[in-house]
Amino acid sequence: xxxxxxxxxxxxxxxTAAKKPTYQTAEINGLPxxxxxxxxxLLTAANFLSSxxxxxxAIVRFTAALVDLQPTIASADEAVGDNYxxxxxxxTAATPNMSIVQRNADTVDEVRGGTVLVAGSVYLQxxxxxxxxxxxxxxxxxxxxxxxxxxxxxxxxxxxxxRDSFSLGGLKL
Length: 173
Fold this sequence. Notes:
mainly beta
């Protein structure tokens, strides 16, 4: 369990031993981390966010070659699989970039940043929605956004209904 430090108790957990990430001490600037294997490790929490607006921060380091469509944080409908919201690295022509993708049994809306992510580097990722447009920042700098499919409607979690949980390190379908 990764306990929420806030009083809202939005703890992330994993009951299956083989899918648990590992806790590592003194990994980034002497601070601890949670290491996901990039295959099936993930932590889940109850569906605690539903607003069309918000900001999410993640500090990530990809220790191996980046995996296509690797989620950092995601929320999905576990029964149907076509209602989801994901902050992920994206690979096109072997170039990984941070992106936001969401779908509500309709056209996939995806926007991505322009900075190439490099395995072994540490990144501070920020994804923000105003309710009408997305903003991505990498290491404090605004990303130039490209619409990959659909639109940059910035409706965040407002459009992706029927989601069961949030997950860190992977997408739980």
